[in-house]
Amino acid sequence: MAIVIAGMGFFTDAYDLFCIALVTKLIGRIYYTDPTSKEPGALPPNVSAAVNGVALCGTLAGQLFFGWLGDKLGRKSVYGFTLILMVLCSIASGLSFGESPKALIGTLCFFRFWPGFGVDGDYPLSATIMSEYANKKTRGAFIAAVFAMQGFGILFGTIVAFAVSAAFRNAYPASAYYVDAKASLVPQADYVWRIILMFGTIPAALTYYWRLKMPETARYTVLIARNTKQAAADMSKVLKKEIEEGQDERQVVFAGDTWGLFSRQFMQRHGLHLLATTSTWFLLDIAFYIQNLFQKDIFSKVGWIPPARTMNALEELNRISARRR
């Protein structure tokens, strides 16, 4: 159950972060198309960078803030709050409004920042909760299973985009842009990108009840909250068997490291581990995030999808989703 709950956090995180990459071309067509031009509209480079990257700015702030807050208030309480933030702001991003393209993009970027803020609060908490629930023998496999849900979240996003675009394309047929520029963009296309952005709230909301029922991790309760009695009660719920506290709470000697993250003791013992871990994650994420956020542009450049002017707006989104799958 812990794997499923934490894994759905990663699933939702990946969906919310990368579904925007599927719909930016559609947004560009809707709000930046000039019918007199030979080519359909597209987001200007600076606008495209802002729309794609603003959520990542939120993730940087979110992981630092919620990581710190999770150590102060406990994993369980903060874990539920990050989920609420992701759900509400994902809905809000789908309801973005504005009288002009500039105003709408500004609203969208504002609401895309906050799901990113919640996503990277959820990201470290999911990994931490899973590692603290697992023992040494199973920890690697359990954390790998949780991280693997990222891939399923990306896949789910492409399936949703493919299904929604196909449904609207069949319901509202349109000609290619080079045939009739105005007719290639049906008014109902504006609903498509909004539905895709908001759809990620469904798997997140389904896990909210189970997050509330999930007890605090015993390692946090013992080592940080210093409450062995509560830790024993929580683990009794998890293991569904009675666990008796071995000694009086006041007599427990908390052996272990109590120095801070940036202290000399920590750097001497774990500095090399920290450097190796962070540097490899950094190099991985450069390729991982760039590929997923700008994959649609690669498809166009290498000719895996036809030129934009030979398709209508919904057909282009449908083909991008099909290629990404």
Automatic annotation (TrEMBL):
Key word Transport present: yes
Transmembrane regions listed in the UniProt entry: 47-66, 78-97, 140-168, 191-210, 272-290
Annotated GO MF terms: symporter activity
Stretches assigned to the Major facilitator superfamily (MFS) profile domain: 2-325
Statement: the UniProt record of this protein carries the keyword Ribosomal protein: no
Main location: membrane
A Gene Ontology term for the protein's cellular component: membrane
Cited Pfam families: Sugar_tr
Protein family membership: Belongs to the major facilitator superfamily. Phosphate:H(+) symporter (TC 2.A.1.9) family.
Official protein name in the record: H(+)/Pi cotransporter
